[in-house]
Model the fold of this input.
Amino acid sequence: MEITLKIHNLLEMEKLASKIAKHLFPGFVLGMGGDLGSGKTTFTQYLAKHMGIKAVVNSPTFTILKIYQNHLPLYHMDVYRLEKIGYDYELDEFIYGDGVAVIEWYEYIKRMLPETMFSMDIKALSETDREITIKGGGVYAEIIKDLSH
Amino acid sequence: MYVMGVESSCDETSVAIVKDGKTVLANVVLSQIDIHKEYGGVVPEIASREHVKGISLVFDQSIKKAGIQYKDIDLVAVTEGPGLIGSLLVGVAAAKVVAMNYDIPIIGIHHIAGHIYANNIEHDLVFPCLALVVSGGHTELILMDKHYQFKKIGETVDDAVGEAYDKVARVLDLPYPGGPMVDKLAQQGKDLYHFPRPLFDSKDYQFSFSGLKSHVINLHHNLSQRHEVFELADFCASFQEAVTDVLVKKTKAAAKEYQVKQIIVAGGVAANKGLRGKISREITDIPVCFPSLGYCTDNAAMIAVAGFFKYKTGNKADDYTINGNSRLEL
Done:
């Protein structure tokens, strides 16, 4: 299942995040693609907010992984630096864990991700407009169907 | 009191011997920067392996340089977090070996406490003291009322300062590590673009650099697409002015509100010439201290100094179950 959405401002970004947040479950794998500044971390901040996380969700770039404890924990990763390596075994237990794994630059570690997952690729059309391509199979396809209405 | 410091949280393997929290007898730093350069950043797995390769040598060199023996050491202080877990474990394991073998107490140190205490090598901390902690992974304002007591009063809500520098450098095609390069170019450019100063007028001490980063990237993209000629130096200068304006303004405001007697700047970005210049120019009524350049980047001397003060203020030594914790809170 694949859909492409256009959003025009942060409010719509938050709306999308809140819709997706309703469908999250333990073990949910959400890959995020898109250039620097396209809004990957911003989306994750909104997602965290709608998951009920009160802590400051800031960039995981430096440490690669940040953990937010919650009734449904959030594992926020930025795997940009793993481009030429393609994996990091330390991340395994969080990708295949009991929380929601949000992975920025997920394409770089594709081979350590499950075959069925949820992905969002963000393309900046202008300073505020974004085109978001959402893909997913299995249980994720149902969620995407719901997002398209 | 001889304290041995051990630091391996990121890409520097370092062991130091410091006397009485002040006199650095040895500070051996083995940097992996050339190895990680081709990846555009530190790769965790490679970093761990390089720490393993280098750590014995760094221990021995440090002891030799200090002119003491292992049995003379009174305390082993080791960075227990935050950082890359594989890297941390190497330093912690090696420090435990020394501590157990020579029956020396061991104490775990928060990496940022180390950066703050780097200032105590050349100055003495005066309380209440405000620390502006700026690095690749941190942007925080920390208030200290006395030794080894930290209160976070503000932090970044998105990117760390050093990270914003590295990402802007990446877009401008500057070599890794980007921060020092942007700083260098900024010295030769002018603030032509007047980028936004995020959260400049907010009344709290939070920082935000993600929007500024995106703004710089968008402008660069647009100029390139229109084939317009622009100077990289002006880009860097405009970015640096925006960043340092925010850092200095919030530091100044916090210093006033909390009536501090000293401001210290800590972390890798404390080496930034633009920041050093501006903060010294704009804050003249309170002494502002920076570590000298060698103590800004990761090193074990700062960990030894922090260890000395943590122990001296009555904190108990750890036992041999001490372990690395990649997400330790200060």
About this structure: The longest helix of chain A spans residues 10-21. Chain A has one domain: 8-132. The mean pLDDT of chain A is 94. The CA atoms of residues 75 and 101 of chain A lie 5 Å apart.
